[in-house]
C-alpha cells in the first residue's frame, strides 16, 4: 500500500498546537514544507506559536478550537478547507493531564469528565470531523497521541508520593483502543488513509504536568482539594531526591518520530526500545499466564514489590 511520502505542500492540522508536543510537531511539519494549522483552546499561546511559524516562513494558520465541542472541531475542519482546500495529516494531540488527587474513588467527577472529554472525546471528534475528508481525498494520516501511561499500563503510584491519577491513563488506554479500531476500519474500506498511534517517550518538559492552570470553567472542581496542585518542578525534585536524574527528551525528537512514522507507515510511532517496553512484555506474560498484574510500576519505573513500603501502601 503506497504511503504519502512527499509532504511538501501538504496540509497538517495539530490540535493542542499552542504548546508542548503539538507546537513541536507543527514546526517539524513546516520544516517539511507543509502548510500548518495549529488548533488550541488557549488563544494567546496559539497566536504566539502561529506567529513564530510564520516568522520562519512557514505557511501557518492558528484556529481557536475546543476539542471537547464537536461543533468547534467541525468549524476547524471547515476553516482548514476554506483556507487550504485539503487536509493530509491530522494530529489529535490536545490533552489534559493529572489533576486529580487521592485514590480513584476519591477523584472529583469533574476531573473524570474533563479528562474524558479532552483526551477521549476530543480524539473521537477529530476522527469524525476529519476522516471523511481524508477518505474523500483518498490519502492522509491520522496521528493520535497516546502515552505509555495507560497505553501500556497505568502508572498508578505517583511522583508526589501518593496515588497517581487514574483518569489520565484510562483516557490514554482508550486512545490506543480507538486508534486500533480506526486502523481496522480504514483498512476495511481499502483506502490509503492510515492511522497511527504516537507514544512520546522519555521525560518531556511540557504544560501537561500543570494542566490545572488552565482548568475550563465547565469542569470547575466540585470538591475541596487537600493536596497542592502538581508542578513540574516538584515532580523533578521528587525524582532527583529518589536518585533519578532527569534529562528532558527534546520535543523535536518526538516530532521526528511522527515524520518518520508517516514516511515508514508505522502504526506504532515509538522511539527506540526503552525500559518501558518491559511493561509490555510482562503484561503479555501476565495475561497469558492468568497471573497477578506484576507489570504495574510506579512513576520511577519500580514494581509494587519495591515501592509498597516507601509509598505507605499495602500489598494484598
Ligand atoms: N508530556 C508528556 O510527558 C507526555 C507523554 C505522553 C503523552 N503526552 C500527550 O501529548 C499530548 C500533548 O501534551 P503536551 O505534553 O504537549 O502538553 P501541553 O499541555 O504542553 O499541550 C497540550 C495542549 O492541549 C491544549 N488543550 C487542552 N485542552 C484542549 C481543548 N479542550 N481543546 C483544544 N486544545 C486543548 C492545551 O491548551 C495545550 O496547548 C497530550 O495528548 C498528552 O497526553 C504527553
CATH topology: Rossmann fold
Q: Distance between the terminal alpha carbons, to the nearest Å? A: 50 Å
- Report the total helices: 10
Supply the CATH superfamily name. Answer: NAD(P)-binding Rossmann-like Domain
The amount of beta strand, in percent, is 5-15%
Query: For the record, what CATH class applies?
Result: Alpha Beta
- Tell me about the biggest sheet? 7 strands, parallel
Bound molecules: nicotinamide-adenine-dinucleotide
Shape: globular
Q: Number of DSSP strands?
A: 7
Organism: Mycolicibacterium rhodesiae (strain NBB3)
Family: Belongs to the short-chain dehydrogenases/reductases (SDR) family.
Keywords: Oxidoreductase
InterPro entries: NAD(P)-bd_dom_sf (IPR036291), SDR_fam (IPR002347)
Amino acid at each position: 500500500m503506497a504511503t504519502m511520502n512527499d509532504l511538501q505542500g501538504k496540509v497538517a492540522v495539530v490540535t493542542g498546537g499552542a504548546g508542548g508536543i503539538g507546537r513541536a510537531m507543527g514546526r517539524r511539519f513546516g520544516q517539511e514544507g507543509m502548510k500548518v494549522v495549529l488548533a488550541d483552546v488557549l488563544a494567546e499561546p496559539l497566536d504566539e506559536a502561529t506567529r513564530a511559524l510564520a516568522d520562519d516562513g512557514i505557511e501557518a494558520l492558528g484556529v481557536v478550537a475546543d476539542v471537547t465541542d464537536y461543533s468547534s472541531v467541525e468549524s476547524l475542519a471547515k476553516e482548514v478547507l476554506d483556507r487550504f482546500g485539503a487536509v493530509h495529516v491530522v494530529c489529535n494531540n490536545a490533552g489534559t493531564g493529572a489533576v486529580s488527587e487521592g485514590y480513584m474513588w476519591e477523584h472529583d467527577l469533574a476531573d473524570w469528565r474533563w479528562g474524558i472529554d479532552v483526551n477521549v472525546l476530543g480524539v473521537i471528534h477529530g476522527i469524525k470531523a476529519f476522516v471523511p475528508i481524508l477518505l474523500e481525498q483518498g490519502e492522509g494520516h491520522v496521528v493520535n497521541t497516546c502515552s505509555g501511561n495507560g497505553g501500556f499500563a497505568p502508572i498508578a503510584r505517583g511522583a508526589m508520593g501518593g496515588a497517581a491519577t487514574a483518569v489520565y491513563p484510562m483516557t490514554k488506554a482508550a486512545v490506543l483502543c480507538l486508534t486500533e479500531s480506526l486502523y481496522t476500519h480504514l483498512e476495511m474500506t481499502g483506502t490509503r488513509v492510515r492511522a497511527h498511534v504516537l507514544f512520546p517517550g522519555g521525560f518531556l518538559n511540557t504544560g501537561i504536568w500543570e494542566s490545572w492552570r488552565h482548568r475550563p470553567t465547565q469542569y470547575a472542581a466540585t470538591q475541596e482539594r487537600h493536596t497542592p496542585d502538581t508542578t513540574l518542578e516538584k515532580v523533578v525534585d521528587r525524582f532527583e531526591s529518589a536518585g533519578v536524574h532527569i534529562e528532558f527528551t527534546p520535543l523535536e525528537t518526538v516530532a521526528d518520530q511522527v515524520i518518520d512514522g508517516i514516511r515508514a507507515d508505522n502504526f506504532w510511532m515509538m522511539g527506540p526500545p526503552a525500559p518501558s517496553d518491559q511493561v509490555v512484555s510482562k503484561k503479555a506474560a501476565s495475561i497469558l499466564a492468568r497471573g497477578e498484574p506484576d507489570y504495574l510500576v510506579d512513576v520511577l519505573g519500580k514494581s509494587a514489590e519495591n515501592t509498597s513500603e516507601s509509598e505507605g501502601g499495602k500489598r494484598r
